[in-house]
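[job 4471] stage=fold_predict status=RUNNING
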Amino acid sequence: MILYFSGTGNCLAVARQIAKFTNDQVMPLTEAVRQDLTSERRIGLIYPSYDFNMPPAVRNLVPQLKISTNAYIFIIITCGAQAGNSIWTIRRLLREKGIEMAYSHKIRVPDNSAIVFGRNPNDQKWKFERFSKRLDTIIADVQAEHKAHHYAWWSPLAWFMGTKRMEQWMLRTFRPAVNETKCIGCGICSGVCPMRNITITDREKPTATNVQLAAVGPHCTVCLACLHACPQQAIEVGAKSSVKAHQYRHPDIKLKDLSRPHPQLL
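[job 4471] inference complete, writing structure tokens
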């Protein structure tokens, strides 16, 4: 079983590519916490690196997993450049459950947070070709159930970025907001949000064409799935207008792939 957490499809695409050769099933991490996976002989966890560490949502979900202490556990981090302490953190979380991971690696993908800083993630698609051989290596290693770890030294900077105060500041600073003048209440953002943190409500003052409005809840993990998927560019960070040309989704992933329903988490 390969579990993934994905906002714009990078981790889902990697999970599917590995599963194609290992004959494993693929399941969203948000759904996996509702399942008893103790009978699974092999468990993969694929998630992105946010601010030099694992996403807050992933850190909260992993302890809820029901998996065997005897399973072969492999971890793959997707990142724009650095994985930071992403693997160190999950190693600690798994050890607290009496589980040792057997394999870990990272693979670089387009950085979907680049849009926040005015850069275009689509300009980074060269990473797919450059790191294709690394993905081939990862697939071969997982197929053979090799035991190996490929990650950097523990980083004090990544630790600082992961402190509660700094994390809360980052979540407040980069928390997406809805531009009410652009939003048409289509619900796409609500569908792609892996945390089901976006609701569609009736406007207090409906217009002739727009009677509903998206609202971002308090449990955002800043995956930016909503920002990249919004057809009206109505999701913004830091009051900066989103640019359609800078919106990103992995080329092998369709919007419907990110919109599968799952139980409310909170």
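[job 4471] summary: The first helix runs from residue 10 to 22.
[job 4471] exit 0
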